[in-house]
Amino acid sequence: MAENQNIEWKESWRDEYLKWICGFANANGGSIIIGKDDKGRIVGLKNAKKLLEDIPNKVRDILGIIVDVNLYETDNGEYLDVIVEAHPYPVNYKGQYHYRSGSTKQELKGNALDKFLLQKRENVGTVFRFLKYPHEI
User: Fold this and answer.
1) For the range 111-120, what are the long-range contacts, defined as Cβ-Cβ under 8 Å and sequence gap of 24 or more?
2) In the predicted model, what is the mean pLDDT of residues 10-27?
3) What would the pLDDT profile of 80-93 be if each residue is shown by its tens digit?
4) Is the pLDDT of residue 136 over 70?
């Protein structure tokens, strides 16, 4: 399986990959698999158990969202699957908005950012119109 709209492979973790998580959250969701090379072969992670705690905490603290992080152990080593759901509202990384397009991460700027924010605003409005408050039930 090749990298695509919903899958990104990384050999090791870097905090800059929070931008990729932001991009998945702003698009259709997806997974970052850490511990695989660009061809999808498992290369393993030495610090997988530490990252199992660090990544969800960094995502929550910096992006304000929750992701699932799963640890897998194989004969070739351990790897992590960071599963990111699509979010109805805009998610930003330190004031920057990123978006997953094909197998790339794009920083949204100018007209593209304006259009993205307007579409998310319309989507959130639609979601909230159907919500009922406890006193309305």
Assistant:
1) 116/26, 116/90, 117/90, 120/26, 120/88, 120/89, 120/90
2) 97
3) 999 999 999 999 99
4) no
Q: State the average pLDDT over residues 12-28.
A: 97
Whether residue 28 contacts residue 54, with contact meaning beta carbons closer than 8 Å, is answered with no
State the virtual CA torsion across 135, 89, 111, 104 in degrees, nearest 10. -160
Q: How far is CA 37 from the centre of its chain?
A: 18
Residue 80: Cβ-neighbour burial (10 angstroms; 0-12, 13-18, 19+): buried
Cα gap 132→137, rounded to integer Å: 7
Q: How far apart are the C-alpha atoms of 101 and 73, rounded to whole Å?
A: 30
For 31-43, how does the pLDDT look when each residue is reduced to its tens digit (9 = 90+)?
999 999 988 899 9
Output phi, psi for 100, to 5 deg.
Answer: -85, 125
